[in-house]
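Reproducibility note. Readers wishing to regenerate the assembly model reported in the main text can use the exact inputs given here. Chain order matters: entities are listed in the order in which they were concatenated for prediction.
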Amino acid sequence: MSSSRPVTSAERELGQFIPLHYHWTMLQDEERVTAFRDAITHFVRPGMHVVELGGGTGILSSFAARCGASVECVERNPELADTARRLLALNGLDRQVQVIQADARDFVPSRPADAVICEMLHVGLVRERQTEVIQAFKDNHQRRFGDRLPRFFPEASILMVQLVQQDHDYHGYRAPVPVFQAPGASQPRTIGLSDPVVYSQFCYDESIPQSFDWTDTVSIVQSGELNAVRFLTMNLIGIVPEQGSAMTWRNQFLVTPLPSNSRVQAGEQRTLSLKYDAGAELSALSESLKLSVPHQVPQRRVA
Ligand SMILES: C[S@@+](CC[C@H](N)C(=O)[O-])C[C@H]1O[C@@H](n2cnc3c(N)ncnc32)[C@H](O)[C@@H]1O
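Running the prediction on these inputs yields the following structure tokens for the assembly.
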């Protein structure tokens, strides 16, 4: 099967055709690969049928195959599909994993899936089509095999924002531009002025939002120069309720500058709103940000 949908120029720009060398970097992301490996190993049993949507190098499919599952690994990029076939054969897993070059939105598995792996995750769920691809898969699967849905890896995502003071000065050169940050590393350029606040959370086997439209009041906990918003995304790859635990992976943080600076004091509040579509480009996310001082209701004098 080959992909029937053409790749649009917007999709190329949005990074949905990720260059090959970026996949070698993704192989080295220990938090990401470990969370998927542990979740897949915990839940997948011999004889299960597993589908991976957007298989890349095939590494996540390999974990399911090593658990004794048969796997259909769907990858749209022909160069990557060939790479996955080569690497899976190198690992002796080419009989358990069938690599199919196709658009995952059109794919219907050969038999009902017990589990689905889909890692098209970017901070804020921008750029990649995680929600759209999983929703299309759910629709296709239910039309063909009935209501029962497979387990999804990830099971859920939690999207958060934080008001921050960001140092945009690079050796005397001022550049207020969006920057990515490794979640585990210290970030001396960033001072958190509020705690992170959740603006969306959802499970992939329930209704999946295709857009985010949120407004809320955020409390300032640290005085400073408010000039940026940091986006943080936590993915629960597998949830083990009986142990009260989960295998988690945080996307890279994204710090996006605000159009203007304002001095804020601890104890104050700000109203923050955002509105963008899942899969949108980064600029859509920053352009949607609106910040204001909440309307104060005057307190009545007690006579
Ligand atoms: C972030 S990468 C993850 C690759 C791999 N699963 C891993 O974890 O290393 C997402 C992959 O999804 C593929 N992809 C994006 N949109 C797709 C679509 N509509 N159908 C099939 N594959 C797609 C990309 O080419 C890319 O290889």
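We highlight two features of this model. The pocket of S-adenosylmethionine is lined by residues 16-18, 26, 54-57, 59-60, 74-77, 80, 103-105, 119-120, 129, 133 (CB under 6 Å). The chain has a mean pLDDT of 93.
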